[in-house]
Amino acid sequence: MFGDLMGMMGKLKETQEKVKATKERLNHVSLEEKSSDDLLKVTITANRKIKSIQIDDSLLADKEQLEDYLILTLNKAIERATEVNEAELAAVAKEGMPNIPGMDAFLK
Amino acid sequence: MFGDLMGMMGKLKETQEKVKATKERLNHVSLEEKSSDDLLKVTITANRKIKSIQIDDSLLADKEQLEDYLILTLNKAIERATEVNEAELAAVAKEGMPNIPGMDAFLK
């Protein structure tokens, strides 16, 4: 029994390292999200850090429209980044999880 | 042994419900982030959904400056939302985790 526990702890430690390495790698995974008419472009990392926002001059004429464009495009970008982030981290964490039915519920 | 496993699975199911309820509640937790001069205001939920972006008219005169303001303020808003999100979900998940030393590493 004690040996099992030690084995499990070792595996968790190893997985913890992998989770950390994955988080570091996700800093260098970039996603681009554009408004349907390409007037607004957002680049974001899979760790949800915005790298660039490119606004077409024409959008500066109508502030409320620009604000709506930003909210829509940014939310899509954050959502996509979160999907990649969670999928990658769940895959790594799953490897290290003890095999208890229902445990993967924590990785959704 | 079997009884333990059933007990653990029951606890995990219960915690899964709590995680779900917490995620729902976080939709209604809003954070406001402002640029230091208050010319840009962003409201975001603790599930990282942007609810509003308010741009001062003066920022529309210089597009590059506006883009920089947006990147800085939005990244701070997303970061703060992620801190609240992860703290709340980790607290709930921890309750349901089997007591294996090192397990909490998955909740960082």
Describe the model.
- The structure is a homodimer of 108-residue chains.
- Chain A is α+β, with helices and mostly antiparallel strands.
- Chain A has one domain (2-98): Nucleoid-associated protein YbaB-like domain (Ybab, Chain: A).
- In chain A, 55% of the residues lie in helices and 16% in strands.
- Chain A has helices at 2-26, 63-96; strands at residues 30-34, 40-45, 50-55.
- Chain A has a 3-stranded antiparallel sheet, covered by helices on one side.
- In chain A, β2 (40-45) and β3 form a beta hairpin.
- In chain A, α1 runs antiparallel to α2 (63-96).
- Chain A is rod-shaped, with a radius of gyration of 20 Å.
- The model of chain A has no long low-confidence stretch (mean pLDDT 89).
- Chains A and B meet through α1, β3 and α2 of A and α1, β3 and α2 of B.
Gyration radius of chain A, to the nearest Å?
20 Å
Runs of chain A in which pLDDT lies below 50 for 5 or more consecutive residues are none
Task: Give the number of helices of chain A.
Answer: 2
Overall residue-averaged pLDDT value of chain A:
89
Based on the structure given, which CATH architecture of chain A is correct? 2-Layer Sandwich
Strand content of chain A: 15-25%
Biggest β-sheet of chain A, characterized? 3 strands, antiparallel
The largest sheet of chain A has its strands arranged as 1-2-3
Shape of chain A: rod-shaped
Helix content of chain A: 40-55%
Distance between the termini of chain A: 30 Å
* Helix and strand run of chain A: HEEEH
Subunit structure (chains A, B): Homodimer.
Protein name (chains A, B): Nucleoid-associated protein ABXZ32_07930
Keywords (chains A, B): Cytoplasm, DNA-binding
Main location (chains A, B): cytoplasm
